[in-house]
Amino acid sequence: MTGRVLPYDVQGSGPHRALVLHNWFGDRSSFAPLREHLDGTTGSYAFLDCRGYGEAIDADGAYTMEEVAADALAVADDLGWDTFSVVGHSMGGKAAQLMLLEAPERVRSLIGISPVSAGGFPLDEDTWALFAGAAENPGHRRAIIDNTTGGRYDDAWLAALVDRSLRRSSPTAFRAYLDSWSRTDFHERVRDNPARVLLVVGAHDPALGAEAMEATWLRWYPNARLTVLSEAGHYAPEETPKELADAIEAFLAA
């Protein structure tokens, strides 16, 4: 699949280069709290919008993880980056693995923030109805965010994330990406991959926390390691941005 150069911006000019892929509920603006804590003298971070999100909200496409991976590689080409790491939050973590498979000589390492595995994210019938209905129903979005952050936040915080996701994502793209990140399975293609991988999860994330990582990523990537943030749920870039920035920078510098 041929990628398209989508809207992106770069923070920092340091030697540790990383492409950053957002989650299902957020565009690249969802990383704003994290960006305040990144050291631009050591890292260069390219934040991009997936098709149907943010400044690319009107971009047509198939809205698949394969397309996200191809678009991200097109951004790397546009930047002239021969090698780089990939940071992927939730569904962005699944697309990051396809980038590794497509361009193993270019992707130096992966950082998954509560990342969806190569095996997808199986959902029972009721949960599937909740997730699929979230494309059109703000209440479904709120329920998902509340659950995956451990029910710890007030109405104002939840409303802000729901409002942003509604304003900065296309319902068509939002719904289509669900099929791709949850239902496609390519874990046999990544089994025993030697890439360096950092998994950063929140202790209050019941969906993609430590237990999920142990059952998937840590079985398939022999050089993966896990960091658990004690005060985060599924949205560490917004819940614990400094702690996440510290973990990312330490891994990239190692």
From TrEMBL:
Domain AB hydrolase-1: 19-239
Signal peptide extent: none
Domain of life: Bacteria
Keywords: Hydrolase
Any one GO molecular-function label of the UniProt entry: hydrolase activity
Name of the protein this chain belongs to: Alpha/beta hydrolase
Pfam families: Abhydrolase_1
InterPro entries, per database record: AB_hydrolase_1, AB_hydrolase_fold, AB_hydrolase_sf
